[in-house]
Amino acid sequence: MFFKKSTKKLPLLLKENIRTNCKRMQKNDVIRAVGQILVDSGYVKPDYVDAMIEREKTFATNIGNGIALPHGVEEAKKEIKASGIAVMIFPDGTDWDGEDVKLVIGIAGTGDDHLAILSNIAIKMSTPEAVDQLVESSVDEIYDTLKGVE
User: Fold this and answer.
1) What is the CATH number of the domain that holds 85?
2) Does 71 qualify as catalytic in the annotation?
3) Does 102 fall in a domain?
């Protein structure tokens, strides 16, 4: 018996990929955790998580306003199965190279999707107030805010 490979497209964000009330942890542990969410939901292969750590070594992914957007190096595109994001909320912040980060969004983007995703997140979260509001939101509210960032 042969099994047909599923061609169902994953949405950019799944509600189960949103983690609220995360406790402070080391930056690399945060990257591994958010990357593992992407692995577990089928967006990326496990090697992509290492590529996210590698990106951070060469270029910090915190963008101000308490946001970090970890993503893999360009050479890791082959490890991406589908474009997707994973969200971790740190109400009390977590240290990211001296910046207190409250919102971490792990990004995997096929083709040029990652550029559009990065840009749209930066626009939606352009003020500290927008970030604070998201940090205090429920999973459903976070989902509604971020589901259209593709």
Assistant:
1) 3.40.930.10
2) yes
3) yes
Q: What percent of the chain has pLDDT over 90?
A: 84
Catalytic option among 27, 32, 55, 71: 71
pLDDT value for 7: 45
pTM for the structure as a whole: 0.92
Sequence-distant (≥ 6) Cβ neighbours of residue 121 within 8 angstroms = 67, 69, 105, 107, 146, 149
Looking at the structure of the chain, the number of domains it has is 1
Q: In what order do the strands lie in the sheet with 99-108?
A: 18-19, 84-96, 99-108, 67-68, 62-64
Residue 134 lies in a domain: yes
The boundaries of the domain holding residue 103 are: 15-146
Q: How far apart are CA 123 and CA 142, in angstroms?
A: 15
Contact 94, 25 (CB under 8 A): yes
